[in-house]
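Exercise 7b. Backbone tokens:
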């Protein structure tokens, strides 16, 4: 039942008790005095604080009198209790508040998301309690049983598992049909079953759960991924970063930025590895681009160490605003001199050209790659590779520096000879029996972080071989690994390698948003492109290269009619037929397009559409 510990720790931090006890000093405060300030029953407070004292987080000086110790003193934000209560959004503004922000982040949305990890990985397992009431879909009356409310729609201020939908009767619009193939749709049958078996008064209106939740992806929302544990815990379809930037989460966004500064104690507070190769060898005025650099905590350390270098911190627009505000207070000279600039940029898109036209000397990706699954992390790396300088005999190439945890294996006997990376052997070699090769629980922090990336983003920390393959697939070659002493966090340096072939870059995307915002390259015969063929989503939500006619064909709008017929009948194709892989031209020996075999209507109609294009309409 250790799960109660982070829950109590969150109450301790969120109620600003560390600030109260800090002002009280070593003598501490009684729970009655704490209760008077916090507004929570003193008996409940005493039991919560006693659990924390049992784990040496605080100390109980006398019965029901508690004080800070060296551990809980780290949770003091440096502001007074009154200031924290009157302006909680400014609680983490102080320079020493990084650890407090990190603790709050971990015990809030991260802790909540972890509880839904299994539900996200195994959506068919009905592990959610039967009497669950999803916020925005149910209202409670005076009775003990929940009742279904089908009149209101979820509002923008109410977090829900599904995006807002219209409850009015009538057919679903074509726009909704074509843009509602989000992976979140996979969860709908599970939700329906859960609701149908719940002890609810009244029937559930099926219009609450359309075939797919209507969501129009935009460049602002980013790629649509499969639902994560975070999505389930917060009842939202938004990716974490988009959710964090909504107006109601402004305090959380500021807290996250400060929490990243609080990670330095266990992600490499020492500058030895961060400031090592290639930074000391860069020329005067060389440009370093901190991609996804947040408010610039890492850039600040580098800028202070290397006054001869210039820096650009790239991130999303709200984060850049926070960063500029922080730097104007703490390091205004670097901003005024333009040695450090903030730049709004989406790292899934091509790198912007810089004023002087010179390519960056270093791309820095610190704690970025672990936020994304391999497919999307590869796109980030590929955009950087395309903007990199490959170097010349008398000119250094653009280097890539990745800062992430490198997970060692829990077993001995790892082969490192094939990696050919400087420092790779030291990064992979483990302890000897009877210890685990990765030192077991002593290395747990990195594996905790790995799980955090999975539940929040669907990302992961990686082993060195995994990172090497990821970098190689995007045209980067690892040349150096430097692990922070006493930690599994490492800085990995790469240089440009061979760019992957065009065919290797064509990876199907599992969402319509990916096709619209990330720009997947699909191979379509030129003749068909001229006739208006495009990559689309099929009726079962898979990303495939299908053929859609434009309105300018030789037969007028007949192509659109064929396409509409195809999409209608494709819905009846059996699932096995639909999942046989990317569809293509049907062999001449197959049945006629007008003859629909059982469960194979999709094949015959695809042949009809393909013949329409291939034979010139």
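Sequence design result:
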């Amino acid at each position: 039942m250790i799960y109660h510990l982070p829950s109590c720790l969150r109450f301790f931090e969120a109620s600003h008790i560390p600030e109260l006890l800090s002002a009280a000093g070593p003598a501490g405060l009684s729970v009655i005095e704490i209760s008077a300030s916090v507004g929570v029953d003193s008996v409940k407070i005493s039991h919560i604080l006693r659990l924390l004292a049992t784990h040496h987080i605080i100390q109980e000086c006398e019965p029901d009198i508690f004080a800070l110790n060296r551990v809980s003193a780290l949770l003091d934000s440096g502001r007074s209790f009154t200031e924290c209560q009157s302006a909680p959004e400014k609680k983490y503004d102080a320079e020493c508040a990084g650890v407090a922000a990190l603790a709050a982040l971990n015990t809030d949305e991260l802790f909540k998301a972890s509880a839904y990890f299994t539900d996200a990985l195994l959506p068919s397992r009905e592990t959610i309690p039967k009497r669950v009431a999803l916020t925005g879909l149910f209202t409670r009356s005076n009775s003990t049983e929940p009742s279904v409310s089908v009149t209101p729609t979820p509002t923008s201020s109410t977090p829900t598992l599904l995006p807002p939908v219209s409850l009015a009767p009538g057919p679903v619009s074509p726009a909704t049909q074509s843009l509602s193939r989000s992976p979140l749709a996979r969860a709908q049958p599970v939700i329906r079953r859960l609701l149908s078996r719940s002890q609810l008064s009244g029937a559930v209106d099926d219009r609450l759960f359309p075939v797919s939740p209507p969501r129009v992806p935009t460049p602002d929302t980013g790629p649509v991924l499969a639902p994560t544990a975070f999505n389930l815990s917060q009842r939202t379809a938004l990716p974490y970063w988009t959710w964090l930037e909504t107006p109601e989460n402004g305090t959380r966004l500021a807290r996250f930025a400060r929490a990243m500064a609080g990670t330095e104690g266990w992600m490499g507070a020492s500058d030895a590895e961060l400031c090592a190769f290639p930074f000391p060898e860069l020329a005067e005025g060389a440009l370093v681009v901190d991609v996804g650099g947040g408010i610039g905590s890492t850039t600040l350390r580098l800028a202070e160490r290397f006054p001869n270098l210039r820096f650009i911190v790239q991130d999303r627009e709200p984060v850049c605003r926070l960063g500029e505000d922080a730097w104007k207070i703490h390091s205004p000279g670097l901003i005024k001199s333009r040695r450090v600039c903030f730049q709004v940029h989406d790292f899934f898109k091509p790198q912007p050209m810089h004023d002087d036209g010179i390519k960056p000397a270093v791309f820095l990706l610190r704690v970025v790659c672990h936020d994304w699954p391999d497919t999307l992390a590869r796109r980030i790396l590929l955009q950087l590779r395309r903007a990199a300088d490959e170097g010349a005999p008398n000119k250094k190439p653009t280097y890539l520096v990745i800062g992430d945890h490198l997970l060692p294996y829990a077993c001995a006997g790892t082969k490192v000879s094939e990696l050919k990376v400087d420092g790779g052997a030291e990064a992979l070699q483990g302890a000897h029996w009877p210890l685990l090769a990765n030192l077991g629980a002593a290395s747990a922090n990195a594996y905790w972080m790995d799980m955090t990336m999975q539940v929040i983003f669907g990302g992961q920390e990686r082993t060195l071989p995994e990172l090497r393959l990821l970098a190689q697939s995007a045209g980067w070659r690892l040349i150096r690994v430097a692990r922070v002493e006493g930690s599994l966090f490492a800085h990995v340096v790469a240089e440009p390698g061979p760019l992957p072939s065009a065919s290797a870059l064509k990876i199907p995307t599992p969402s319509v948003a990916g096709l619209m915002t990330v720009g997947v390259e699909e191979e379509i015969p030129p003749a068909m492109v001229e006739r208006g063929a495009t990559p689309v989503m099929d009726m079962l939500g898979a990303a495939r290269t299908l053929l859609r006619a434009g309105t300018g064909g030789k037969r007028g709008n007949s192509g659109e009619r064929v396409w509409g017929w195809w999409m209608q009948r494709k819905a009846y194709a059996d699932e096995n037929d639909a999942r046989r892989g990317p569809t293509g031209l049907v062999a001449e020996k197959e049945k006629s397009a007008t003859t629909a075999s059982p469960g194979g209507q999709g094949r015959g109609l695809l042949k009809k559409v393909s013949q329409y294009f291939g034979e010139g309409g």
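Instructor comment: The CA atoms of residues 244 and 280 lie 36 Å apart. The mean pLDDT is 74.
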